[in-house]
Amino acid sequence: MLDAADPGPQRRSPIAPEERDDAEMAVVELPQDSNPPAGAVDWEDPASLPVGAVEDLFLTLSKALRSYQLYDRNNPVYRRFLANLREAFQTVWADRDELEILVDEDRFLWMGQDVYREDNRSSSLSFLLYRDGIRELTFRKGIEDDEMEVLLDVLQRVRASRSSEDDLVTLLWDLDLSFLEYGAVDLLPEGTLLRSQPSSDERFEVGEILTGEFGTEAPSQEELAATLDGDEGAEAPTGAIRPEDFNPTLYALDEGERSYVEQLYRAELKRDLRLDVLNALFDRLEDSNTDTGRQKEIVSALRQLLPTFLAQGALSHSARLLQEVEERLKLDVPLAPEASEQIRTLLDEFSSPDAVRELVHALEDGAIPEDGEELGLLLRHLKPSALGPLLARIEEVTRPEARRTLRTATRTLARGEEDRIATFLSDPDPVVVAGAVRLLGGLRHKASVPTLVELLRSGSPVVQGAVLDAARRLPTTALAEELERTLFQDERDLRVGAARVLAEVKYIPAKDTLGRILEGKEFKEADLTEKMAFFEAYADLAGPDGVALLSRVLNHRSLLGRRELPELRACAALALGRIEDPTAVQALERARDDSEPAVRSAVNRVLSRGNREEGEG
Asked: Are 228 and 188 contained in the same domain?
């Protein structure tokens, strides 16, 4: 077998016409064939050539390669295919001792005739050879006995391997088979001229053809410009690289490969480079070879990145940046004093009231995603001095979703810092106090209950409303008793809120107080919202024990035949509907045909709802 670089006497190999060029190609030259033995075949007459025997040979070779993939070497099926392949070779050797084959990407040619064709590249034997640059094959008599299984093995290795090192030319070169020769081309663009490395003082213009051992001269600038501009009348200069020198089908991808490359491409498009940028900056910051000037430059870049990340809504990247710079101050990292001071300035800027205000404003406007967990990771890096402005800003947020997100994130931030939060209960700003009250209620900080009781009794309306909200999450007897006393406050919203919270926390002792209020004369002057809140709270706390009072309000007549106001009676009917007891239904049935439209409507609505629920049950 001859090397493609062998400088000895050569004979032009029968390469396909489109691959022939005046340029030199790395082609393995084969020795002249000896004359075929005398026989019935007239090799000058194509009609008499044994094309069928050669076609059967490559069909059998393809089947044998598939069986080599599927079966063990001792399997009878594989041995049978191998025997069939030997017989096919012996049939060919009946007329001659060599078989020269031209390799195309989808076929094998012998004596100008197609002897094998396969358009599916994944299973094509011809494309397997063509892909690695093989353009000729010569089989010699004897290959079927000594080297056939070796050839099957190397073909299988190339088909199964994805490594560029396992190309067929290299493997065949290492094997140095005696009964197989091949001709190959370099897989650079075919027809491209190569030369030795130019010296350092040589300069070339774009598109200039390198001159060297082949003796080709560089085209003139006019010739090159005409060629690049697509002048149809201009002839390409000798030795220039032309588009037709490239065979696109040789490097085209099959469906599976194209899908794999597309997946990699899409994954690269989706890859978040911001994390890579941060890692690179911090790696350089830790590098002991980084000088003071470079450290200051890196920290300055980080100070610019933080507001950029926040504006983009990249909370996790912002939190990562803050965490890393904080660790650089705590760890024994050789930072220059100027760089350390810049990092402290960065952390102070993030915890400033202006930065907190901008952060809350961005969340309320929707510029920052409402992810409570990521926001909590970010707020964890606020300094204690920022808690007050943050609590104040939360109370000013109008959008419910943003407010809930901020409170959840702040609650996560404040865990373990309850005593520090409690100091804000004495802040002069009532908005800050209200924020601290809600936060302590969410954290169920029982040590703050005495202060909350006092704030409910004498705090500003905004603070009292916050205490009512905290009392829902912090049910204690002291707070519930103060809520019961709040039922007699002058502020109507405070009374309504206290009644609803007492029902929500199930403070049963308050039912007697609510009952007295419902039967009092002053309660008749209350508005509908307050009446409904008190009646519902009483029904929820009293249960079946409250049917008697509610039924009396709904159905009782005085000695003169007078009844309670229709508004009160309708509220009593709705409250009876909250009690699951037969006596409540009986009281409602008595008022089904009441003459007052408001009462009759409330009764029928409750009864129909009960019948519907029974039907669904």
From this structure: yes
**Which tokens in the block code for residue 166?**
């396992």
Rounded to whole angstroms, the Cα distance separating 326 from 454 reads: 40
Q: Are 424 and 386 in contact, with CB atoms under 8 Å apart?
A: no
Statement to judge: residues 494 and 549 lie in one domain:
no
Task: Judge if 98 and 148 occupy the same domain.
Answer: yes
- 71-81 per-position pLDDT tens digit: 888 888 888 88
Return the HEC string of 486-514: HCCCCCHHHHHHHHHHHHHCCCCCHHHHH
The 134-140 sheet, strands edge to edge: 113-117, 107-110, 98-103, 134-140, 180-184
Query: CA end-to-end span of the chain, whole Å?
Result: 90
Query: In this structure, what token pair is assigned to residue 338?
Result: 């100027």
Contacts of 302 (CB under 8 A, 6+ apart): 281, 321, 325, 346
Q: Within its chain, how far is the Cα of 390 from the centroid? A: 32
3-state secondary structure of 79: helix
The Cα 509–Cα 504 span in angstroms is 13
Closest CA to 479 of 512, 444, 513, 514: 444
What secondary structure letter does DSSP report for 29?
P
| Pairing relationship of beta strands 107-110 and 98-103 according to DSSP bridges | antiparallel
Sort 140 into a burial class: Cβ within 10 Å, 0-12 / 13-18 / 19+: middle
Q: Assess if residue 430 is contained within a domain.
A: yes
Q: Is 579 found in the same domain as 528?
A: yes
CA dist., res. 188 & res. 209, Å (int): 16
Average pLDDT over residues 124-148: 88
pLDDT tens digits, 460-491: 888 999 999 989 888 889 999 999 999 998 89
Domain that residue 449 falls in: 421-507
Share of the chain above pLDDT 70, in %: 76
526 and 500 within one domain: no
DSSP string over 287-347: -TT--HHHHHHHHHHHHHHHHHHHHHT-HHHHHHHHHHHHHHHHTT----HHHHHHHHHHH
The values of phi and psi at residue 136, to 5°, are -140, 145
Q: How far is CA 555 from CA 87, 579, 588, 595, in A?
A: 111, 17, 9, 12
Give the CA radius of gyration of the chain: 46
| Residues 431 and 579 placed together within one structural domain of the fold | no
Are the C-beta atoms of residues 369 and 315 closer than 8 Å to each other? yes
State how far the Cα of 198 lies from the Cα of 205, in Å rounded to an integer: 13
Of 483, 415, 422, which is closest to residue 447 (Cα–Cα)?
422
Task: Report yes or no on 400 lying in a domain.
Answer: no
Query: β-pairing, 113-117 with 180-184?
Result: unpaired
- Crossing angle between the packed helical segments 461-473 and 492-504, to the nearest 10 degrees: 10
Report yes or no on 276 lying in a domain: no
pTM for this prediction: 0.49
Distance CA 29, CA 22 (A): 16
**Greatest Cα-to-Cα distance within the chain, rounded to the nearest angstrom:** 142
At residue 101 the predicted structure's pLDDT band, cuts being 50, 70 and 90, is very high
Number of domains in the chain: 3
